[in-house]
Amino acid sequence: GDAKRFYRVIACAFMACGLAVMLVWIIWLGVDGRAWGSNTRKWLAAENSDVYAYVMKGIDLSYSAHCSPQTKNISSYGAKEQIKIKAACTSAESVWFIQWCSPLVAFICNMLCAIFCFLFSRTSFSRTDKQTVAANRMAEFQSIVKCVVLILSLTIACLYCSLYVSGASVRLGSAILCGAAVSIALILGWVFLEVDQSELKDLLQRVPLAGNIVKIVRSDWMRAVAVGGLNVLIPLAMGLDVMRQTVRRCRDSKVAQEAGSHWFTSSGMRIKKEVETWNWWSIFTKVNLLAMLFVLMIVGTKATFVFFSALNTALSNANLGFATVAILTFAIGLGMFLCPIVPGTAVYLFAGVVLGAQSQLEGSVGFWPGMVSAVVACSLAKMIACVGQYSIGYFAGKLVKVQQFVGVDKVPTRAMEKILKQPGMKLDKVCILVAGPDFPTSVLCGILKLRIPQMLL
Questions:
Q1: In Å, how far from its chain's centre is CA 84?
Q2: Which residue has the higher pLDDT, 26 or 227?
Q3: Residue 63 and which of 25, 267, 375, 453 are 20 to 30 A apart at CA?
C-alpha cells in the first residue's frame, strides 16, 4: 500500500543520510588527520578556549597548563582548587568530545530511525493484503514481534550495562539507564498504539512463545520499569493529549460531538482504560524496590572503585614482592567476584593497575609477565567464584520454594536448561553464559544441576 511505500522511502532516506554523514566524517578524520589522539585533543581544546573560560571562573584555565596529562602542573594550587580544576577540565573535555563524535551520534540516530520506519512499513497492510495474503501477513507480523523482542533485549542489556558504567561515571550510567528505560516505554507504546490488536490476539493464539512474551511485558515488574523510567513524563504526556483533544474540539464540532465528555483522544482513552486495570499498589511497590536496588548497585560499584583505589595505594606503599601482591590480588578478586553487586570490570582494572605497576618496578618481573600474571589471577578467581556461586544454587535448589521461585518447570527455564546442557561451545550456550550476569547465571546452573566443566567451558 501507499503507507508501506512511504515508510520504506523514509527508511531509505534516513539510511542514506546516516551513511553520508558517516562517510564524510571518516574522510575528514583521514584527510585532515583528526583521528582521536593527543594532537586532536590539543586542536579541539584550542578551538574551545571559550569553553574553558566559562567552566572555571577566577582561574585562566587552559588545556596545556591545567588539563593535559602530559604537560599539566597544578601542584601550586590547594587541594580544593585542584579538585575544582579537575572537574572543570572534565566538563570542558566532555563538550569538545561530543563535538568530535557528533557525526557518529547522528549516524546511529539515523540508523535507528531507519529501523523503526522499516518496522512501520512491515505493519502497514492494505485491504487487499488483509483479504488475500493472510498467511504472509502473519509471517511478517511474527518477524516484527521477533524484532521488537530483540530490541527490548538490547535495551534491557543497556540497563544492566549502566550499572557497570556507574562505577566510573554516575552521570553517564544514569543517562544510559534513562535512555534505555525511555526506549523500552516508547517501543511498548508503539506496539500498543500502532499494531492491530486483532492481529496481535491472533498471533497470541497461534504462537505460544508470543503469549509468554506478552505475559512478561504485561507483568507488574515491566510496568514498574516503564513507570520509574518515564515518571514525570507520564503526566506531561497526559496533559499534551488533553491539549490536543481540546484543540480538536475547538476546530471541529463533529469531533466534539463524537468525543462527548471525554477529555482524551482515542489513543489517550485506550491508554487510560489500560492503565485503569493496573494494580498500582503493586507497581509503586516494585518501583521503590527497583529504585533501592539501583541505588545499591550504584553505591556498591562506586564504593568498589574507591576501595580498590585505596587498596592499590596501600599495596604500592607496602613494598611487597611481586608474588605476594599477585596472591593478594587473586584472593581479593575472588572475594569480590563472589559479591553480587561488585562489577567484574572493577576487579579486572584493579588487577591490571596493581600488577602492571608492580611488574615495572626496578628488579621486578617486567610488563609482559605482569600482564600474564594479571590475566591468570583474574581468570582463576573468576572460575573459582563461578563454582562457588554454582554451589549456592546447587544446595539452594533442593528447596521447593527456590524451585518455585525460579520456575524450573516453566518453558523458558526448560529451554535454557536444554541449551546449557549442550556439549561444547555452541553459540546459543555461549550467549547465555557470557552475556548473562555472573551471579544469577552461575546460581541457575547450580539449581539446574548442570555439569561444572561444561559451564566453565
A1: 30
A2: 26
A3: 25
Residue spans of alpha helices (H) in 397-410: 400-406
Reading the block at residue 8, the C-alpha cell is 520504506
**Cα–Cα distance for residue pair 113/18, rounded to 1 Å:** 10
Q: Please write the tens of the pLDDT for every residue from 44-100.
A: 888 888 888 888 777 888 888 888 877 788 888 888 888 888 888 888 888 888 888
d(CA 66, CA 74): 6
The Cα–Cα gap between 332 and 220 comes to: 38
Q: Report whether 345 contacts 393 (CB < 8 A).
A: no
DSSP state of 68: -
Residue ranges in 195-279 assigned as alpha helix (H)? 197-206, 208-217, 220-230, 233-251, 253-259, 266-276
Q: Provide CB contacts within 8 A for 265, sequence distance 6+.
A: 241, 244, 245, 248
Query: Where do the H-state alpha helices sit in 123-133?
Result: 127-132
Cell representation of residue 107: 549516524
Integer CA distances (angstroms), 8 to 13, 129, 141, in order: 9, 17, 16
Helices 38-47 and 79-122: crossing angle in degrees, nearest 10, is 100
Task: Tell me which DSSP letter residue 48 carries.
Answer: T
CA distance 44 to 72: 17
